Amino acid sequence: MIDYLTDFMLVLFYTCRDVLPILLLIIFFQLIVLKQPVPHLKRVILGGVYVVLGLALFLMGLEKALFPVGKIMATQLSDPEFIGASASELSNWSSYYWIYIFAALIGFATTIAEPSLIAVALKAGEVSVGTISPWGLRVTVAIGVALALALGTFRIVTGTPLFIYIMAGYIIVIIQTIFAPRKLIALAYDSGGVTTSTVTVPLVAALGLGLSGAVPGRNPAIDGFGLIAFASLFPIITVLGYAQLMNLKTRLLKIKTKKDAI
User: Fold this and answer.
1) What mean pLDDT is predicted for residues 106-125?
2) Domain boundaries, the chain
3) Does residue 143 register a pLDDT over 70?
4) How far apart are CA 20 and CA 245, in angstroms?
5) φ/ψ (deg, to 5) at 153
6) DSSP states of 163-207 as a string?
7) I need a surface site. Which of 33, 108, 116, 144 has the fewest CB within 10 A?
């Protein structure tokens, strides 16, 4: 217990140090540039304390829980005894199918719970006056992340160069951007960015590093990173694809309505 308190105090100190420049910048502009007192000073101070404590607790949780869980799961799922593979079969990508399933499921689950995605989905629903379903957008993005992590873990197992997947993915995005409805293009690109946030990144990074350390012949420094790039790219593809499908559905419905009218 004492060790945990010591670690927390150290994390809290570093958090205060990191937040201090932001605080000084805001105070400088408020008092010196704008020459206005800080409104609701007591509330701002209390909110600042909550932010610092929340960040410290979150960082502590990453270090003590999320990072170890991701690494342990990757190590256990790639264990030869679990996957039923001999030492000679460990290089066979098909032996790691549980890793792909786990990566897809953890990607879907963490994305659905991602606070930044929830915020973007709710705002998209408000701005579109109900045209865009917040829940539908979240599910579409989560499916993209699930596919991304399954393919990303496949890349780690096979040792395929990362740039091939990323280049191919962005070529698909460029083609989709040309044909997708213009009003949803910006939202699709934002959806890719918000997936790599507080909940998703820690588990994804731990999974990639743990898997690259467990698979024979892989180097965590070279092969362990890159999963987050997949998690940023594939939601753009799925959201643009969803937009294109809905646009096609609307066109077909209009054509059918015209035919019925005739």
Assistant:
1) 87
2) 1-76, 78-261
3) yes
4) 47
5) -70, -35
6) HHHHHHHHHHHHHHHHHS-HHHHHHHHHHHHHTSSTTHHHHHHHH
7) 33
pLDDT of 3-34, one tens digit each? 778 888 888 898 898 888 888 898 888 888 88
Both tokens of 40, joined, read 């609701």
Which amino acid type is present at position 20? L
> From CA 133, how far away is CA 10, in angstroms rounded?
43
Of the listed ranges 25-29, 119-123, 190-194, the one predicted with least confidence: 190-194
pLDDT digits (tens, 9 = 90+) for 62-103: 778 777 777 777 777 766 666 555 555 555 666 778 888 988
The two three-digit tokens of residue 70, written as one number: 């991701």
- Quick count: other Cβ atoms within 10 Å of Cβ 37? 8
Pick the most confident of 22-36, 47-61, 128-142, 165-179: 165-179
- Count CA atoms closer than 13 A to 254's CA, side-chain side: 6
Q: What angle do CA 140, 145, 149 make, to 5 degrees?
A: 150
Neighbours of 254 (CB within 10 A): 10
DSSP string, 106-169: HHHHHHHT-HHHHHHHHHHHHHTTTSS-HHHHHHHHHHHHHHHHHHHHHHHHHT--HHHHHHHH
Nearest CA-CA partner of 163 in 149, 195, 93, 171: 171
Pair 204, 108: CB distance under 8 Å:
no
